[in-house]
């Protein structure tokens, strides 16, 4: 009985995944669902929690581009694509549900284009990417002589929210598949305001649906279904809270490692089945205003410094966040550190 | 506290669920056509009298007479076969199931896979120059060949023609010598496939294996070792299937060797070697078009490719076209004509009002670099129909031979038209125009997809009349897909479709006289 239920559940899940036709094609070059949230304070991958009954609304704009990409591990140019740009507007809400448990929901809108002249004259893509929900739970909190140690677990689920085509790389806006993620996060907050944090995550991706029913992935595949590789995600960061805990500055490393997949072939388009590895370094700053309680701004910049089957992206972003207590209707203090 | 514990428990069960889901959703995505051995709908005992393509008739290739079934030699072969069958390993059984009793479809799929593997357009070097694949240095880089649509159509044509002639020869000798399969003489031999009364000397499977290996090794020289492995596995599975003794198989490979040599001799002198020209020749072709019509197609890639794809493929020797100029369509519209201006508006309209349906059609038929190309797509359909209609290997080979001769002729005629008129692509003529697929490196008029697809559809409609409406609909869709994608004018597609039908008719007229109907 249990078995049967499970199988039905599985079928349902598989169906959902294969019917997701959208256009999330960032994949290759784009790596979105993993990262679009990570620059925010108040994100599934950081080590912050909001008090219960608080909501934080974030709106951000990100501009990224690359004019070189790794075909396998060979860094090359493609002047017929020129500089590929990707602009993202993300709306996200973080909700403090109970003490130690936050929920997140986010939805990015993405637009891609080639710079002019565009030797291939390719049209870019645009649309709503994946809707993501996540729950972050603080499993451990310990006060030691030198500072506070916290451990968190985040579970996330993301799925395409529009009919975007993933098999239109490098312009597609996402991978076009559902994704389950688990992240384990550790943070140590020193008494002097500095903190260190580390995260390891694993992402199960499903299948994406192409609009052709034959493709080559180290051999023939007679299907429109493409297997999107699962991936490991690593992050390590150092940061500090300054100015009465109103300003947070952080430097971090973010790594992605696909667990399977093929390489982009010579001078050929990438596809969602590709093995994508990314090493990226990032700087971010977030400031909470003194005058308007709960209002903050954030700015960040990150660069892909090494990769496999991915664009050598440089991204900059700006965001606004506003945090308030939905139960008492008063603005909350800045986050717990 | 209680709360916390509850939450932890919840998280744990969610994790468990995720684990189960991710393991159980692994799919087997098919890597080849899913079919099993089947009973042939006909045996075609007169197949040895059908008219072959390269040779005079089914008796033109000589093999020796088989040993009598009462001879010690034959009995010895049978006992060796029985011994081999008793020790079949799991991988050998898997091979028997994979190759089936119609391995022609498998070798066609292998060809499609190699086409997709080698269908990669060379990128620019650091200094902006381009290096072309070179048959004398196949490793490259870039690797030889670049299996673009003309190359693919030609590889498939030689493969299919050699298979067909080889099988007509095999059928001739089968019914001349009438030596039945070993399982018919010794009922202790387990036969892996459905029984039939087609004689076994020579083995038709062995003809197919040897021809395929030889033709494909010439077309894809870097794959010689891989193809040898496939041939070895296939020949062994023929034996272990209980259908043939060793001498049946070696007689089949003898025919395979002989017909492959004839096919490759034709290939060596068909003009393909000169199809990719120097820049000087390419420029003179372009200048001739400009002189005649006042226009010329330009490559717009960055850096510019100095020479289009195979400007002289139109001069390659066709199979069924007597006079290439006689099938060349009329000139495309002038830029100041109402027809042209109307087309500009149509293309802009498609680009500005892209729908998911138009996008789907464009992508489904795109068959661009990295895929099996449009000729490959039509071979795939043919494979599916062959299995659906339970064709025997000889009929399958006939289907593929007429399909692929016509498809190569379609390419030759289309390329002749393309470089004669040298007509610009939409991205060259419409300011700021963007496409949802890559614009190929050759002139616009007529559309290769349209000519190939109309030709493919007509040949398949002749062989599978019940599929006529279906395949003609597909051809229309393949043609318009190029307009939706922004790569072609509507007249490229429309005139290309008419052109394709004419080319197909030449093949069909010939096929109707070959004695098989």
TrEMBL record, chain A:
Instruction: For this UniProt record, give its keywords in alphabetical order, as a comma-separated list.
Output: Membrane, Transmembrane, Transmembrane helix
Q: Does the keyword Membrane apply?
A: yes
Q: Establish whether keyword Transmembrane is in the entry.
A: yes
Transmembrane ranges, per UniProt, are 21-40
Name by which UniProt lists this protein: MetA-pathway of phenol degradation
The organism named in the record is Cellulophaga tyrosinoxydans
Automatic annotation (TrEMBL), chain B:
SMART domains referenced in this protein's UniProt entry, alphabetically: acidPPc (SM00014)
- List the InterPro entries: Br/Cl_peroxidase_C (IPR016119), PAP2/HPO (IPR000326), PAP2/HPO_sf (IPR036938), V-haloperoxidase (IPR052559)
| SUPFAM superfamilies linked | Acid phosphatase/Vanadium-dependent haloperoxidase
User: From the UniProt record, which GO molecular function terms apply?
Assistant: peroxidase activity
**Chain ranges of the Phosphatidic acid phosphatase type 2/haloperoxidase domain:** 400-508
Q: Which Gene3D superfamilies match?
A: Vanadium-containing Chloroperoxidase, domain 2
Q: What is this protein called?
A: PAP2 superfamily protein
The species this protein was found in: Cellulophaga tyrosinoxydans
